[in-house]
Specification:
- The chain is an alpha+beta fold.
- Among the domains are: 102 residues, Ribosomal Protein L22, Chain A, CATH 3.90.470.10; 32 residues.
- It is built from six helices and five strands; from the N terminus they run E-H-H-H-E-E-E-E-H-H-H.
- The strands form two sheets. It has a three-stranded antiparallel β-sheet. Strands 3-4 form a two-stranded antiparallel sheet.
- The chain is flat, with a radius of gyration of 45 Å.
Length: 212
């Protein structure tokens, strides 16, 4: 058994006729939003880089406006119940090719239809719960980020007082004193070396004079 015809589907619709794009390109984007609530559908279309996303977003906004103004529905309770693209008129053009031939060019168009309907009570409750949880999580992230931003300002005076600690300076002064004492000791011991080396030479000279 086949489903209802496209012109007999319930809901509020908006139609864009004769848009210069092939229906296959529009169907790729329509498949992304079919069955989503209108808020999620807008988010998906806003993050899609295809050209059809910009056009379909306008058609979706028109369908939501029709549901609010004509049927008295709330935008928070709507979802995309149907979305499809039909083939439109095709303009036939030709380009010159080699050896006197002509290449065929088909400039296609399509009719884009978006239908929105009211969510069921069960699904509406789930959507509202998900939105409230998302809002609470966003609020928690904002509070945490504000607390992290204010934390460095509270600890700034401690950072300024840190260089006043004298313990590292005393250790560095003690090391310098030890190095200076060691250098002075080496300097005092340095002249004794040459005198000790000259003592054997003086003894040798005295023994030579005695033998003579």
């Amino acid at each position: 058994m086949t489903g209802p015809k496209t012109n007999e589907r319930p809901g509020t619709r908006a139609v864009l006729r004769g848009y210069r794009m092939s229906a296959s390109k529009a169907r790729v984007v329509l498949d992304l939003i079919r069955g989503l609530d209108v808020q999620a559908a807008h988010e998906v279309l806003g993050s899609t880089t295809r050209e059809a996303a910009r056009v379909i977003d306008k058609v979706l906004s028109s369908a939501i406006a029709n549901a609010i103004n004509n049927d008295g529905l709330s935008a928070d309770e709507l979802y995309v119940s149907a979305a499809y693209a039909d083939e439109g008129a095709t303009l036939k053009r030709f380009s010159p090719r080699a050896r006197g031939r002509a290449g065929k060019i088909a400039k296609r168009s399509c009719h884009i239809t978006v239908i929105v309907s009211r969510l069921s009570e069960e699904r509406l409750a789930l959507v509202r719960a998900a939105r409230s949880a998302q809002a609470a999580a966003s609020r928690s992230r904002r509070v945490a980020s504000s607390r992290r931003a204010s934390a460095p300002a509270a600890t700034a005076p401690l950072a300024d007082e840190a260089p006043a600690v004298a313990a590292p300076t005393e250790e560095f002064t003690t090391d310098e004193t030890l190095d200076e004492d060691a250098a002075a000791a080496e300097t005092a011991e340095a002249p004794e070396g040459p005198e000790d080396s000259q003592a054997p030479e003086a003894d040798a000279d005295e023994s030579a004079e005695t033998e003579e």
